[in-house]
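Dear colleague,

As promised, here are the two records you asked about, laid out in our usual form so they can be pasted straight into your sheet.

NAME FIELD: protein one
SEQUENCE, THEN STRUCTURE:
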Amino acid sequence: MLMDSTAVWKPGWSIPERNVFETFEEIIPNAKGRLIIGTFASQLERLMKIVRITEGCGKKIVVDGRSMVTNIGIVRELGILKHKDSTVIPISAMHEYPPEKLVILATGAQGDQYASLMRIGNKNHKYIKITPDDTVVLSSSVIPGNEIAVQRLKDNLSRQGAHIVTFNTSDVHASGHGSAEEAKWIHQQIRPKFFIPQHGHHFMLRVHADLIQESIDIPPENIAIPDNSSVIEIQDKGTKIVTLKEKAPDAIRVVEGQNITELSGVLMRDRKELSKEGFCVVVATIDRRTGKLHKSPDIISRGFVYLRENTELMNQTRLIISKQVNVMFGRGKHPSMDDAKAQLSESVSRFLLQQTQKRPIVIPVIVSI
């Protein structure tokens, strides 16, 4: 048996979804202003319950976020969700209704950068601006790794005056990952001969392995605790499982045009730097006989500064290039091109950082004529 291990370290039972329904039956009718509910678009049962409660108390639903709109539309088309046509209104028609009559279903409870809630929090949403009477319910737990993004989202919404409700303060979310007692119950019902805990950090897998040995009689050698890329082999006609020393390829691969390659750390670092600070190409044309510049250095900038508005900075940068060329090639010196480019890049980068507090990628080009 392979089994999810994400929440088995939590003692007891997880709360059932009916507790969440009861909470929304209390929150939705009593909201004094707009109610904005952020949850997973895949939580169809919860979404449908929210729509029914909202319709039942005479309020209107606004659905915002592509995946949310798509999923609500699918269950409506299939006849699984039934509501009056007037219950769900276009987001552009929100202004026609008083705030206390509106419930907004939004994507982005995990702090997703371009989702509805994050755009609201960043004040970038075309239709929704937070007011002090708004209540935002984050109907989800925080997926490991999203803690900072979710905290930033809550802070941004709070600064604008919203009242925040989370799973920590109210039963607005029931986890899809079973806690310890659910796991024990499944162990006892299935009583597997072999067990491989999966889906979770390694300590969670270890906790799960210990838990199943508390639940049922299973030999430790019949349990394999894997890491990413582990290869577990079934041997001796299914009588034992063995974790091999060999590892499966697990590097991230990217598809670019017609090429499929492993993700390069250096490549991704350069692309991130380009996206943040841009780049600057400096071209130094040198007379190989004298070691002096043949002409004024050329500078090409993209995503760093607008050249026409920074002529003084560019002129100063040309002086830095000229001085560095004199140091490297003056008095008959003949450094290797690689060394010369490295020194030129370093001097220009240092100068630009001092002047602008930015670190564009500097690409040096030395032409010898």
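NAME FIELD: protein two
SEQUENCE, THEN STRUCTURE:
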Amino acid sequence: MFEIIPAVDILDGKCVRLEQGKFSHVTVYSKDPVAMAKKWQEKGAKRLHVVDLDGAKTGIPKNIDIVKNIIKSLDIPVQVGGGIRNIELIEELLAAGADRVVLGTSAIDNPNTLSTFCPRFGDKIAVSLDVLHGKVTTHGWKNTSPHNAVSLAKEAVKLGVRRFVYTDIKRDGMLSGPNFEGIKELARETDVPIIASGGISSQEDVEKLRELYPIGVEGCIVGKALYAGKVTLEEIL
């Protein structure tokens, strides 16, 4: 079943949204991320996507207690990303009840870590491909790697990755529509499940992504559109 996954991004202990991954373009939507997470569950969410933006930026998770509190407070699966760059933190989050951890920089900078993580944790690991002009970015979207998203994804699959989160940075937080072609290309070329993110602005966008379920797009992460009231969770579920 195609999943609609609300995003809870945490910066300095607050629930925020960024525009195009820029920390200079922040909108605070709540000072209580746990209450926001509970709200999405109450409105019918079947999974949540939680990101420690401080962790993504610095490599040191700053909001882990809030993340754990969210996991503990909900009855639905929670996938967690942001600054997860070593095996100890993966184990800590899974032990706290996270359903899945999403790796970014550690997987891109040092792909060999995947050959350690993937056999051990299996489908509890997903890799985030944060893409700018076709290239993958790292370190909280500050650095652009030389890697093409599809070629990197193919190599990651060989190392055991079973799921990707694809985000088009240019579209993220801009309500400009997803990068449907980039999403379709990744799904077709890798043959593992893809979660699409970035740019969703309407129920129509969600329905177009839902139509890609047969080729491996298993869900989408919705952030700004929900927080800005462009869509309601009830109408897109």
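A couple of things worth noting about protein two: The domain at 3-236 is CATH 3.20.20.70 (TIM Barrel). The chain has a mean pLDDT of 95.

Best,
R.
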